[in-house]
Amino acid sequence: MKSSARLLATVKSERFLTPGNPTGLTGLLTHPTPRTQLLYYYSSTLKKLSQFPEHSVYRKSTEAITKQRYDIVAAIKPEGYEEWAQRAQKLVDKHPEVFGKDADVRNVFVPAQLAEYKNPLDLEWDGRNLDLPSMEGTRMPEEKRRHRRYMDKVHANEGNDLDWENEPPLEAEQIEEIENKIGAGLIEEVIEVAEGENKLVDTIFESRSWEELEEKPPQGQWDYFTRDQHTPGTQAPPEGKN
């Protein structure tokens, strides 16, 4: 059964979801490229986890669920995907300065894909461009030039100057299939979780949580929380009865 939260997103088309339409959850709009976004977050998380020691409990648990979800999303491909992948891979190989050396098109997410996506919440603006204030304080010419070079580099790395072709969209039934297999709500909710995990990996790595504590806890400190310490076990059956 299709989730009632999806009804508004499929008003115009039964085959495809309309990007930007309400999902039925407050503040959460239909994502324009959910498959690409998820594959990027999952591949990025797995790459970061590879820096953790193999005995890390966090690495083992997070790696297992991330690989499982990656495989689910990667296995469901939109119509015309293979033809698109061949064209996109040529562009990726042509621009290693943007995508990295030996980058795989399956793990590439280009912000330019969102360039045509307009958030309906922003449509009330009348279209006038504001003159944004410059950085506070006096800036010497050399400082301004450094700032301009930095911003040019940022924009170039984002792929804004590339003639990038979007991955073909998933059909509504394909998205529903992914949602059912993952079992964690709408695909937009899954994306938010994947994004949060991708950021959390950095925090966990910086804290080096797999290392021994500098100060050992007192003996018996955690005994209170162990199982069956404060509740009786199952009562033994009377003699002569099974």
Characterize the structure shown.
The protein is mainly alpha-helical and 242 residues long. The chain has seven helices and two strands; from the N terminus they run ββααααααα. Helix 1 (34-49) runs antiparallel to helix 2 and helix 1 (34-49) runs parallel beside helix 7 (187-207). It starts with 21 loop residues before the first strand and ends in a 35-residue tail after the last helix. Residues 112-120 and 131-138 have low confidence and may be disordered.
- Compressed to H and E, one letter per element, the order equals EEHHHHHHH
Strand residue content: under 5%
Number of strands: 2
- Overall pLDDT, averaged? 78
Computed CA radius of gyration, to the nearest angstrom: 25 Å
**Global structural class:** mainly alpha
Q: Point out poorly predicted stretches.
A: 112-120, 131-138
Q: Give the N-to-C terminal Cα separation.
A: 45 Å
> Percent range for helical residues?
40-55%
Q: What characteristic shape results from the CA principal axes?
A: extended
Number of contiguous helices = 7
Largest sheet: 2 strands, antiparallel
